[in-house]
Every structure is written in structure tokens, then in C-alpha cells.
Amino acid sequence: MPVPKDFETLEHTADTGIIAYGKDLKQAFANAARGLFSLIAELESVNEVLERDIEVTAADRDSLLVAWLNELIYIFDTENILFKRFDITRLSQHHLVARGYGERVVRARHKLKTGVKAATYHMLAVEQEYGWRLQVLFDI
């Protein structure tokens, strides 16, 4: 069965979240990251002129997803980088290595939407169905 879409937005009381899909776990993690940045900004206006290598380690797969997204939020907050695309080159239960493609925020061109503070463990799900389904809520 084909994967229905890359990701969708999940509305929750005071927070917001995403459900990301992938035919494999690498694709699902990449789509979760794209979903995160779609909450932060209009991705259509982001050019892929900058590359950034990213590596995270965690105790288990669920924690790895939260660490991955929180590392991306940290990079956005500290370096003003909007990512549009991700290549996950290595992914195990405890370790992720990826490259993000995007650019620094240009206020005149980029429409910023939501201030995302952190990925949370509330309602977190990493499930294998027909491919993978990841669900994450964010503090905003």
C-alpha cells in the first residue's frame, strides 16, 4: 500500500503537531522534519542554498525522533536556518546522521508562521503500519 502523503498537521488544544509518513523510517524522519519547518514558515519561499550536517544520538527510537526535531529547532533558533529538504544518511535505534538543505531567514522574503519551542513526548508515536507513521506534538 502506498504512503498516503509526506505529513499532515495535527491540531491539539494549546499545541500543534504533525503526523509524518514514510515508506521507510528514514523517509518518515525526513518528512517529520519537513513537517516541523512547514509549521515555522512557508516552505515554498525557502531556497536550498545552504547545506548543514546534523547528527543526534538518543537512548531509543522515540527519544531519537524528539532529539532530532529539537536539534533542528535549536539550529533554527540559534542560526536562523530554515530547512526545506533532508537526506537521512544513517539511522539506527540510537543514532541519526543527516544533511539539511535550506537557507538563513530573510525577513523580507520568508513568511514565518509559528514559533515552535520544542518537540514533546506527549502523544508521541512511532508506528510501523504500511510503511511508517510518526506523530509528534510541539510546544508553541
Concise structural overview:
The protein is α+β, with helices and mostly antiparallel strands. The protein is 25% helix and 41% strand. The longest helix is centred in the middle third of the chain and has 19 residues, at 61-79.
Task: Describe what you observe in this structure.
By secondary structure, the chain is α+β, with helices and mostly antiparallel strands. It has a single domain, classed as Archease, Possible Chaperone, Chain: A, domain 1 (3-Layer(bab) Sandwich). Helices cover 25% and strands 41% of the residues. It contains 2 helices and 8 strands. Strands 1, 2, 6, 7 and 8 form a 5-stranded antiparallel beta sheet that branches. α1 packs parallel to α2. The relative contact order is 0.27.
Question: Could you give the topology of this structure?
Answer:
Blueprint (H helix, E strand, L loop, with lengths): L6 E5 L4 E7 L2 H16 L9 E8 L3 H19 L1 E11 L3 E10 L13 E2 L5 E5 L1 E9 L1
Helix pairs in contact: 1-2
N-to-C terminal Cα separation, in Å? 34 Å
Shape: globular
> What is the count of distinct domains?
1
Indicate the proportion of strand residues: 35-45%
Order of helices and strands: EEHEHEEEEE
Going by CATH, the architecture would be 3-Layer(bab) Sandwich
Oligomer: single chain
The percent of residues in helical segments reads 25-40%
CATH superfamily: Archease domain
Overall pLDDT metric? 93
Number of separate helices: 2
What would you report as the Rg, rounded to the nearest angstrom? 14 Å
Number of strands: 8
Q: What is the class in the CATH system?
A: Alpha Beta
Taking pLDDT < 50 over at least 5 consecutive residues as the criterion, the unreliable ranges are: none
* Largest sheet descriptor: 5 strands, antiparallel
What is the CATH topology assignment? Archease, Possible Chaperone, Chain: A, domain 1
Structural class of the helices, strands and pairings? alpha+beta
